[in-house]
Design goal:
The protein is built from five helices and five strands; from the N terminus they run E-H-E-H-E-H-E-H-H-E. It has about 150 residues and is of the alpha/beta class. A five-stranded parallel β-sheet has the order 3-2-1-4-5, sandwiched between helices.
């Protein structure tokens, strides 16, 4: 059994990771931790990891991308290490792609049996303007998808 666990390092990602650990142990599954970094737009994107930006108020520079990737990889390795210490076979995937497309592509490429991802519950306006990653994955996935609700909901 192979589980693809899409994480974004938000607070709700901790719930997704905890559920993935339980499921992986129960099913003796291999976990593929995926973090998709969508193409950045210096005009509209607000980079989450403030440590990767030079100073507040300075516009995003494309040179920041390697630092963002290194930070994401470091976080993935940390989570993977914790899972491996619990006896869970784990691999990491860091990709620069639209979240939905990355999840679908990696699930096909790695012959994933089940996808786990979180639901943020951003609200109607956000959903209307931006869309929902979980909705897009559900529509396009060829395997079962489990949505872990955020604790805020």
């Amino acid at each position: 059994m192979k589980l693809l666990v899409a994480i974004d390092f938000s607070e709700s990602a901790q719930s997704v990771i905890a559920e993935a650990e339980k499921l992986a142990k129960t099913l003796s599954a291999k976990v593929f931790l995926l973090h998709a970094m969508p193409p950045l737009s210096p005009i509209i994107d607000n980079v989450d990891d403030a440590a990767t930006l030079p100073q507040p108020g300075i516009p995003f520079q494309m040179e920041s991308l390697p630092r963002l990737s290194a930070s994401a990889k470091e976080k993935l390795l940390e989570i993977s290490g914790r899972m491996q210490a619990e006896g869970i076979e784990c691999a990491i995937i860091l990709t620069h792609n639209n979240e939905v497309e990355a999840i679908i592509e990696e699930s096909k490429k790695n012959r994933i049996d089940m996808i786990l991802l979180g639901s943020h519950g951003h609200g109607a306006l956000y959903h209307l303007l931006i869309g929902s990653v979980s909705e897009g994955v559900i529509r396009k996935a060829s395997c079962p998808v489990i949505i872990i609700p955020s604790k805020k909901q």
